[in-house]
Amino acid sequence: MAQPESLAELLNGRRAAVDASLPAVGFVAGWLVFGESIWAGAIAAVVSAIGVSWWRLRKGDKPRAVLIGLFLVCVAALIALYTGKAEDFFLLQLLSNAASALAWIISIVIRWPLLGLVVGTVLGQRTRWRRDPALLRAYSRGSWVWVMQYVIRVAVFLPLYQAGWTEALAAARLGLSGPLIAGCLAVSWWVIRRSLPADHPGLRHPVVVDPAQKAAS
Fold first, then answer.
1. What is the pTM of this model?
2. DSSP readout, 24-80?
């Protein structure tokens, strides 16, 4: 199978995950340095997010994705300020991972696996990959690896959040970002390659099956 790129190269997920972790580290650093001040933590998180956004824009990332990341950090900071609990800075992260796990499961069940949608969009294929039975099956299997990624995060974050361990939440946020994303990309790529026939031309070249021909067969 002629396929030079890996999922890590196509999606660049590891770098984005590390960048997204920096505001959380900034929040806890500001919170600790200024005597557990949530205001200080919130300001540090937003300043860190602005710095990351500036850096990502310079690297050519899409402005919409960068602004969404900045917006989410601001929302997380506002939640912590509103409740007066530092651990609530991570509530949005916990909820988003739970929602993501559910969304990925649903996408697999209805045969629109999100991994296929993401990679297909990056490759400019739109939904052509869905007319390739082998790719559809491979993306569905690979998507289960991403489900497990979100489940692992929820399993780690939830008890730490319930215990109010803010520092541990930041450590988990950092530890379960870059390394976990890298592992997820590698394993899901391995699953995809194992699922595709040996003579398949690869992700960039879906073998489109004519629906009429498929029905006739």
1. 0.85
2. HHHHHHHHHHTTS-HHHHHHHHHHHHHHHHHHHHHTT--HHHHHHHHHHHHHHHHHH
